[in-house]
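Holo model, nicotinamide-adenine-dinucleotide. Inputs:
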Amino acid sequence: MNENSSRRDLLKLASLTTLGAGLADAADSPRPGRSMSGVPFEAKETVRLGVIGVGGRGNSLIDNFGAIPQVRITALCDIVKEKTAAAQAKLEKAGKQPPALYSSGDHAYEQLVARDDVDLVVIATPWIWHVRMAVAAMKAGKHAAVEVPAARTLEECWEMVNTSEKTRRHCMQLENCCYGENELMVLLMVRAGLFGDLTHGACAYDHDLRGILFSKSGEGLWRRDENIRRNGNLYPTHGLGPVAHYMDVNRGDRFDYTVSMSSPSLSLQAYRKDKLPPDDPRQQEVYRNGDMNISLIRTVKGRLIELQHDVATPQPYDRINLIAGTKGIFRDYPPRIYVDGGRGDAFGPLDPYKQKFTHPYWKQVGDLAKELGGHGGMDFVMAYRLIECMRQGTAPDIDVYDAAAWSAPGPLSEQSVAKGSMPMKFPDFTRGRWEKAAQSMPV
Ligand SMILES: NC(=O)c1ccc[n+]([C@@H]2O[C@H](COP(=O)([O-])OP(=O)(O)OC[C@H]3O[C@@H](n4cnc5c(N)ncnc54)[C@H](O)[C@@H]3O)[C@@H](O)[C@H]2O)c1
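Output:
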């Protein structure tokens, strides 16, 4: 090989390597579209809803959105015809116009999203359906509001982002925990500087779901399967959403990387041994998901978040909801606070802060929200706020970049666990716009 040909080969290799790197980058961060961050809804006096998935959660969303006078539910879809008919009857009994029903099969939702009297498609189906339904809704010109977690894979996260940018339709995640009374109060305290400069947070979905997972209806029909196929944090957003809001993630900070570890998987096996007959076919299932998964997330600003997932251990419900900084700390379950210069080294109650920091949304609609129930009222506050944004023509509080970033710890934790807790990078779904994006949830 002479010097010239070897140089030519090196240049060729270099250009191939560059091309390869380019392709890898492109796979990680597809071609930029115009951002949907801060894009206002077109203002509407009445918001027309189509709801896909009329199970436990779908019914609760129908009750909460349906309680807002300026909402009209025009269409319902579920593969179980009786569920759509029962929800239709419920709405009629409440004096509403009967919605159109779709239940001809797995793809009946395509007819719902094609209607011309739907502004927002609400999706409350099993997780594997979320993104394809949201994408169909956006491509049909509708905004989409997806239950949690919005996406199960990074590819799905990108598909949501790309479709939202291309169609100029919003794709929101219905993360009700961001609207809890304590969460919104703590958000105000964070913004008032009560905790100083934020350094770390902790959050969880620690919820004993054993009874639900082995039920022969509702989530028992599909959610156990996720625990068979996957090992990681299957349900990250309830804990992470509020902490992401405290830290202005995607609006001045961003999730950078995560490491994750799972415990052995024992509690679902122990439960079914006690509760199911020995010849029940579910006795043969193999659950891969560790009872407890713990992920650590580091943000670009160097902040630390501990994120837990445990739906198998017998335990009281806990989302932790901890936020801490240079001047103090709040943690929930039960709610307690310590601010620098406080009484000794004991936590104090949150109550004394209520008068000053109760969030305006809770002042406006808190009583009705509590009356309706729905996770202590936060379901209604979320519904009310989303409809308010659509009616006033402002941007949603939780946009497609949040839906992607808060869902991403699912697949990233799976990858990290599978690789001996190797660090996994978060894609930047905002494509660099996170530094300048305006703060969400104006207060
Ligand atoms: N935010 C919350 O607090 C909260 C609470 C519960 C559930 N969820 C979420 O809500 C979603 C639904 O959960 P759920 O508890 O209502 O489950 P569920 O099983 O009770 O309801 C799901 C419904 O979807 C229907 N469905 C399945 N495939 C469909 C298809 N192709 N087309 C139309 N309908 C279809 C099922 O028949 C069922 O009625 C999940 O994403 C879950 O994680 C959120």
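The longest helix spans residues 3-28. The chain has a mean pLDDT of 93.
Archived with the compound record.
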